[in-house]
Design a protein that fits this description.
Elements: H1 2-19, E1 34-37, E2 51-56, E3 61-66, E4 72-76, E5 81-85, E6 94-99, E7 105-109, E8 114-118, E9 124-128, E10 148-153, E11 159-165, E12 171-175, E13 181-186, E14 199-204, E15 210-214, E16 219-223, E17 229-233, E18 241-244, E19 247-252, E20 257-261, E21 267-272, E22 278-281, E23 287-290, E24 297-302
Antiparallel strand pairs: 1-24, 2-3, 3-4, 4-5, 6-7, 7-8, 8-9, 10-11, 11-12, 12-13, 14-15, 15-16, 16-17, 18-19, 19-20, 20-21, 22-23, 23-24
Length: about 300
Amino acid sequence: MFRPLLTALLLTSMIQVTLAQPEDASNQNPEQNFVRDGTWANPTGKWDGNTSWVAADGKGQVYVLVRRDPHVRIYDRDGNFIRQWSGEPATTNPHSITVDNDGNIWITETYSHIVLKFSPDGDLLMTLGERDQPGDNDEIGRFNQPNHVFIHDSGNGVGDIYVSDGYVNSRIMHFSPDGKFIRMIGGKGGPRDGEFQAVHGVAVTDDGRIITNDSENFRVNVFDRDGQFLESWPYRSRGGIEIVNDRIYISDVNEGEVNILTLDGELIDTAYAPRAHGLGVDTDGTIYTSGASRMTVFKLTPKP
């Protein structure tokens, strides 16, 4: 009488254990061409807040964005602390951090529906969008939970601004360096060519192609410089995107991986780190990922 019940309970327990495995369990310790360090800049491996994003400026500094004061924490490549700040006005849910060629810091403030530009010392220089005022796909001056910024330096020392406005809306917004609207790319949710479902990042190649993380369609969408759809690549992309040394890096938080592609979208290699949400890539090919709610940062150094 009790044996069938005991067997059923054991099976139920096994199923629950299986379901409780981390989402990236298959990538916990895979073979890869990178040395993974989970204690970079933090010997405990556990930060004191949600490590939403990470960025490398290519000049020796790495920026970790934490959803707890101070939000911006800056280290050298070896993980030695340099400085930190939060900036004003106060942020409530910072999502991504981008460093432009002049050392200015761009932060998407998701719940407040704005993009903030700060000086290297944390002084506010520009605000895109209207604080606490969400907009839909038809509105130019308002976002709805923007999640990433890319600054495209066309070679004249200034950079156009591309904003991934994708947690609620389905578009990329393109602005001039002084914040004037230029064009909208996308604007319609769905699985068809040129449409987005949770666009989660944007980058621009030297030849002007706009590469976008179409995360819930499990692909990467490519547009020409005028915003016309060109093609899609079959890579999961719920994370960051970077272009360094003619290589495209795309992370995915659910797979716990960073795919490294040619400029034409061909897979070169894959690096692995648990919950690879935020993404920064240094000029030597070193990859930094942040685990968001896991409160982790990983440094992935190419093996010799």
